[in-house]
Amino acid sequence: MEVVVFVFSLLDCCALIFLSVYFIITLSDLECDYINARSCCSKLNKWVIPELVGHAIVTVLMLVSLHWFIFLLNLPVATWNIYRNTQSRAAEVTHEGSHDQARVPFALFLHVSL
């Protein structure tokens, strides 16, 4: 059973790394004016929820399989992803998301480094 857990975790982490690289490439295309902001948002927004679900699945899977150390390593990043997603949804509703823009580079750095 442990082999299946770690193989699934490895595949999921590879997919999350691929998504992080895709996000960085798309954002660099936006910065260089190869694409406009609307198409950048449409490309990236459809991958936010699958990224959140993928990371949450690995975190819960490590909790269920009693791998505490790996669970504790994944928990802060999964919590940050859930917080970031719920706050951005609230900012869309209230249209007051401009004050959160200073935290985005740190969040991207944290996500890519883990």
Automatic annotation (TrEMBL):
Q: Which residues cross the membrane?
A: 6-27, 48-70
Q: Which UniProt keywords apply?
A: Membrane, Transmembrane, Transmembrane helix
Q: Report the superkingdom from the record.
A: Eukaryota
InterPro entries named among the record's database cross-references: Cornichon
Q: Give the similarity note.
A: Belongs to the cornichon family.
Protein's name in the database: Protein cornichon homolog 4 isoform X2
Report which gene this protein is encoded by.
LOC101405366
Q: Which PANTHER family match?
A: CORNICHON-RELATED
- Record Pfam families: Cornichon
The record's annotation in SMART domains points to: Cornichon
User: Subcellular location, in the record's words?
Assistant: Membrane
Q: How does it sit in the membrane?
A: Multi-pass membrane protein
Main subcellular location:
membrane
